[in-house]
Amino acid sequence: MTTVHSNATPSADELRSQFWDTLTRELSEGLHSATPGQLLGVASTLLDITSHPDAAGQSTAQVVRHLAAWDRPETSAGALAIATLADDAGLRRWVRRDLADRGYTVPRWLADLHLATPADRAVELIGPFREADDVILGVTVPSGDALTAVVRIDNELGARAVDGAVFEQPIATVLHRVRTDDDPDLRIRDIGAADARARVTAALTGARPDELLRTSTQWQSQRCIVRWMLSCFPDGGDATVPGRLDDVDTDEVTTRFLASPWGRPWTRSPLLLLVEQVLVSGLGNGLGDPLLWAPRHVGRLLDPGLHDLDPDALDLDHTPELLRDLIRYGHGVRGVRSELTDASLLAVDRWAPAFLASVRRRHDEATA
User: Fold this and answer.
1) Residue 138: in which H helix or E strand, if any?
2) Domain segments of the chain: what residues?
3) pTM for this structure?
4) In Å, how far are 140, 289, 329, 332 from 261, measured between CA atoms?
């Protein structure tokens, strides 16, 4: 007898049933967990969908009421978690009344989640090139459970939040883990609670670059937890990225570079425009400092696609050599460790062959 294997696509009803089975299982596991993480993760995932700019109005309230109407302890707990993370006091009160009417109870951490308070410390983790900063902040709920968020803010994408994670640990524990990584170039800077809220709120406002950068699904599922945590912090802070250079005079930087031993070979007029253009490209590095060149920045400038430099107006054959001299000069001025400078110089060596091959190919095509 021939066995027939069915490759039929599941029907909409089957997919819907699978979704609800998975959802109720995860909500049940979260409700019976000793810590908040799992239930809040499920609630945050649903809230991220219903609060998306493309979602229909009142989507969050509809989902909350639908979960409560299912008349199961785990779905009612999920409804309360979503209403609390949404920071909707009216919706949260409605869910609490509905829970009482149905005779359901929830863990203390969930019942008192809206009373969470900020941790006594918030910090920024800062690297030497400031391509991205990590802001770490935490909250404690009255049950004693702690949540700590680490939010990666990309300074080269308009200081937008591009990744992050939430840990069920106090901020001191998370910081201890960071310190044990033994990164000699990582600096920890304390920031005020209001400034932490302002900085991360601004990073989460507007476009969602993480959707384009294919960041972790963990961050997407925890993003709304972070938004709720911020609501526990005082407002009125300063969202300015510390150390950002907004008004760099590239003419002055060029003059100082050319007056240095590393810049004197580039004082000839045919090369001056190249120097200026490389420094202008460097304004997109980290916090806008054209004297700091991380390997990532080197790779962007020496991209064979020639996105930052005009092959028709510049003598690009000299670009890698110029960049080496600029790195040595700039890193010396900024006090960058020699090991980091060596890494950037190695990046020039790695990217230069493909870059120069692209320059010569374009030249040959233009003269053919």
Assistant:
1) strand 132-140
2) 13-111, 117-231, 250-367
3) 0.86
4) 55, 20, 8, 12
